[in-house]
Amino acid sequence: MSLATVTTLPWVEKYRPKTLDDVVNQEEVITSLKNILKTKAVPHMLFAGPPGVGKTATAHAFARDLYGQSYIEDGWFIEINASDERGIQTIREKVKMFARQIPMGGEIGFKILLLDESDQLTDDAQHAFRRVMEQYSATCRFILAANYSNRIIEPIQSRCAVFRFRPLLKKDIIDRIRWIAEQEKLEVDDIALETIYEFSEGDMRRAINTLQAAASISSKIDEKTVYYILGYISRGEIRKILELAMGGNFTQARDELRKLIYVQGLAGSDIVSAIYRELFYLDLSEEDKLELLDLLGEVDYRIAEGGTEEVQLMAFLAQLASKKKRRQT
Ligand SMILES: Nc1ncnc2c1ncn2[C@@H]1O[C@H](COP(=O)(O)OP(=O)(O)OP(=O)(O)O)[C@@H](O)[C@H]1O
Ligand SMILES: [Mg+2]
To answer: What is the pTM of this model?
Structure first.
């Protein structure tokens, strides 16, 4: 590999698990797959779960562990993406080409075909695919990956061993990100790690992409770098605006808000989300918080309906200011 390829390789690929042992968490799935590897009796499988938790990566790792590192080059494994293909006819042709012959000299009598994003197929296409599965099951095992198992027709589900992938836990994501940061010689502080996790929602792909984007700005990554990358407002900034409004410094609050909207170019709905997160920490009675939450919902709705962001958000800040006053009297 040339230096240029090394430096531009997306980290989600660079740090993709190579073997089942590299896959973070998904313990039940990995244990079952390792048992299957021992007997080499491979069923058709359905990998279901949210985005970025290792379904595609696990299918590859499994095939590599089963056939060896040139599992693709030697013709044992192929990946077809259901959402890229032009229809079931194309998929059928590809399966036919792939599954009609078994490579010579291997001890395993079948190949593996990964149909990624299989829940993108219509029901009709899935019925057709089920027939393809049956036709070629002597020489080919199918792994179907999907975000929603309930979008896979029952006749396919009943022919597959179903493996459920889970959103990754905080520790899983933080440990992996910290490890990648070490490999890349980055300094990432703890709050930045927490923030990367918080916005990943358990999606490792998103977490790694955020880290890589942050690293393109600086090799020292703190909370601010992460917020900047995500196009979000840092907690400090939003808190400042809320506190200015509560303290009666309305004009200053407006100026700060305008900076977010017109200078940083943030979307009104993102500002609403940031206020939502911060509202719980403000020095207000529970009753007032509830009322403000209600109002915030309305602001969010009006902005979505095309209301002017500045006007709607200022109306909210005005209410916030009146709350503080009421508390003081
Ligand atoms: N459990 C995991 N352990 C280690 N790395 C992971 C894990 N899950 C995801 N990753 C990282 O994130 C990348 C994307 O994961 P993968 O393509 O397997 O997600 P997926 O579950 O197939 O998502 P989608 O539903 O969007 O297809 C991987 O290349 C890898 O770098
Ligand atoms: Mg995938």
So the answer is: 0.76
The preferred substitution site among 204, 208, 210 for testing ligand 1, maximizing ligand atoms within 8 Å of CB, is 204
Residue 146 is classified by DSSP as E
Give backbone dihedrals phi and psi of 122, rounded to 5 degrees, phi first.
-70, 165
Shortest CA distance to 25 belongs to which of 165, 120, 148?
A: 165
Alpha carbons 172 and 141: distance in angstroms, whole number: 30
Distance (Å) from CA 172 to ligand 2 centroid: 18
Domains and CATH numbers, the chain: 3-164 (3.40.50.300), 170-230 (1.10.8.60), 235-328 (1.20.272.10)
Angle ∠(241,243,244) on CA atoms, nearest 5: 65
CA 263 to CA 233: how far, in whole Å?
12
Q: Express each pLDDT in 21-67 by its tens digit.
A: 999 999 999 999 999 999 999 999 999 999 999 999 999 999 999 99
